[in-house]
Amino acid sequence: MKLFNDHFQNSKRYNLPRAQLVIADIPYNTGTNAYGSNPQWYEGGDIANGQSAVAGKQFFDTDKDFRISEFLHFTARMLKKEPKEAGRAPCMIVFCAFDQQMELIEEAKKHGFAHYINLVFRKNFSPQVLKANMRIVGNAEYGVLLYRDKLPLFNNRGRMIFNVMDWVRDNDTPKVHPTQKPIGLLETLIEIFTNPGDVVIDPVAGSGVALLAAQNLGREGYGFEIKKEFCKAFEETISHAGKTQLALFPTETYAPQAFDLEVTA
Q: Could you tell me if 130 and 39 are in contact, meaning their C-beta atoms sit under 8 angstroms apart?
């Protein structure tokens, strides 16, 4: 697997193979209310300690620059062309905020994705604990599966798979990113929509956990992340996993600096 400290718009520089699955957790654009109902708003999670450094802050200073139309313009080209045979079509899974779903669906149509399946990920907890005495709090996250014309490759192993899936906490993988997804959930999605040896691309990789999930299942994982600190944190995550050896190769060819995180068994 490889993670590049670069923007997905520059993917042509790396001559990557086209993906069977593009999986992405896009910015939710929650603005300065990113931690608004989370205990992290306060020092030590206690209101008595006063506000913490993240109070009134957004997750990332780049979120305001993210455009769904721009994202789909580039990521649509990262997917393989739709094959003639049935049961092999690629697809894209995008984690998103509830109110981003319709924009994703409508914009995707402009880029050849005529069909979608909405996804709901059900948690047995809620990050909105500061609102618990005021209103019903959220315990779900959302996503959209996008595909062109033919139904995507589907490994259901004889099971009925529902569009509402359990979000099982990941207590083993180091949490290095504020919106990091559980590796077990990512493995479930990757296993359903790809076969061993297929290519998985995460254009906004964050912690890089989707790449690790792909490798755990024998897929090729490639990702892009513009924040250097998350690329370096990914190296620590790989070391923690203890399943691979990681070589970090910085190059001086591009700006921003591109790190090619190459993993060997």
A: yes
What residue ranges do the domains of the chain occupy? Answer: 2-29+66-264, 31-60
Residue 189, classed as helix, strand or coil, is helix
Residue 211 DSSP class = H
Q: Answer whether 0.85 is exceeded by the pTM.
A: no
Tell me the CATH number for domain 2-29+66-264: 3.40.50.150
Those residues whose C-beta lies under 8 Å from the C-beta of residue 151, and which sit 6 or more positions away, are 86, 87, 89
Q: 149-202: per-residue pLDDT in tens?
A: 999 999 999 999 999 999 999 988 888 888 899 999 999 999 999 999 999 999
Residues 6+ apart with CB under 8 A from 95: 24, 25, 26, 141, 142, 143, 181
